[in-house]
Amino acid sequence: MGRPARLSREAICDAAMALLAESGSADFTMRALGDRLGVDPSAVYRHFSDKDDLLLEVGDRSMDPVTRGFLASQDAYSDIIRLCGRLRSTLIESPVVLPIVAAGPTRRDNELRITEIVLDALNRAGLDTDRAVVAYHAIIEYTLGSAWLDAPLAAASSDRTATYQKWRADYRNLDPQRFPTTVAASSSLYPSSNAVFEAGLSALLTGLITAVTRKNT
């Protein structure tokens, strides 16, 4: 049997990502990772200080599509919408790392770039540092929450249409005397999750920026 390939941070992260996709973060162990790589688990510690260090790196690498090639425009409002849309889509497409990213900031390159882009855009939109920081957290928490809620249905995309149709039927069949408004709106409930996200983010941004504008006038 040949010697195993030389370990690198990239190879370890790739193997960890594959293992997470198979078993989930709850069952992820360094021993299982060592078995997948064909090495003693202690070899991984030459590249990462511990399991948390490794998972933070995996989580941050998963966000590379969010920042790769992103260029700020003259429209700060649009920049935030575009970046958060990318973040939400990336997390939905990588549900195995969503718990890692949602647990707290990785404080690594991609997360730091996301923070810089959003804070800069908020400053350019007229918010001072303190207000921009509060707005930043509100925006990121809204985006992560949206991804967390939508990821399970997105993973079963073939069933989503049927699921929504059933939910609409449930609302449509409610007692119209008790829930007249809900019954009337039943056929329109559960529109595109992307449209709902963008509408909510737009309203959140408008409210944050308008509040500052009114205070300064």
Feature tags:
217 residues; mainly alpha; Arc Repressor Mutant, subunit A; Tetracycline Repressor, domain 2
Structure notes:
The chain has 217 residues and is mainly α. The protein has 2 domains: 9-48, Orthogonal Bundle (Arc Repressor Mutant, subunit A), CATH 1.10.10; 64-215, Tetracycline Repressor, domain 2 (Orthogonal Bundle). It has helices spanning 9-23, 30-37, 51-62, 64-67, 76-93, 98-103, 109-124, 129-155, 157-172, 180-185, 193-215. Helix 1 (9-23) packs across helix 3 and helix 5 runs parallel beside helix 8. The model has no long low-confidence stretch (mean pLDDT 92).
Give the secondary structure arrangement, pairings included:
Elements: H1 9-23, H2 30-37, H3 51-62, H4 64-67, H5 76-93, H6 98-103, H7 109-124, H8 129-155, H9 157-172, H10 180-185, H11 193-215
Helix pairs in contact: 1-2, 1-3, 5-7, 5-8, 7-8, 8-11
Class per helix and strand makeup = mainly alpha
Shape: flat
Quote the distance from N terminus to C terminus.
Answer: 75 Å
Q: What is the β-strand count?
A: 0
